[in-house]
TrEMBL record:
Subcellular location per the Swiss-Prot or TrEMBL entry: Cell membrane
Residue span, Cardiolipin synthase N-terminal domain: 18-59
Official protein name in the record: PLDc N-terminal domain-containing protein
InterPro entries from the UniProt entry: CLS_N (IPR027379)
Membrane topology: Multi-pass membrane protein
Record's keyword annotation contains Cell membrane: yes
Pfam families the record matches: PLDc_N (PF13396)
Originating organism: Cellulomonas avistercoris
UniProt entry keywords in alphabetical sequence: Cell membrane, Membrane, Transmembrane, Transmembrane helix
Domain of life of the source: Bacteria
Record's keyword annotation contains Transmembrane: yes
Primary site of residence: membrane
Membrane spanning stretches: 6-27, 39-62
Lineage: Bacteria, Bacillati, Actinomycetota, Actinomycetes, Micrococcales
Length: 72
């Protein structure tokens, strides 16, 4: 049944799941957003699977960079 599945496929799927779960946890733990923003972000991450998770990582990196330089 899984004859053509290699370790590369497994690594990609696990990486995708880890990114998606991390994105969803981060979205719902965010304090400054209202429920509508959280729902929209959740739908975006789920609807655009891999790109949504990568975009979330990019926004987190930008937001953390802004936060670290604003205190200087």
């Amino acid at each position: 049944m899984f004859v053509n599945v290699s370790y590369t496929h497994v690594v990609i799927v696990v990486a995708y799941l880890a990114l998606t779960i991390a994105a969803l946890v981060s979205i719902w733990r965010r304090d400054g957003a209202d429920v509508a923003q959280k729902v929209f972000s959740t739908v975006a991450v789920i609807a655009v699977p891999f790109i949504g998770a990568l975009l979330w990582l990019a926004f987190v990196a930008v937001r953390s960079r802004r936060g670290s330089t604003s205190g200087a």
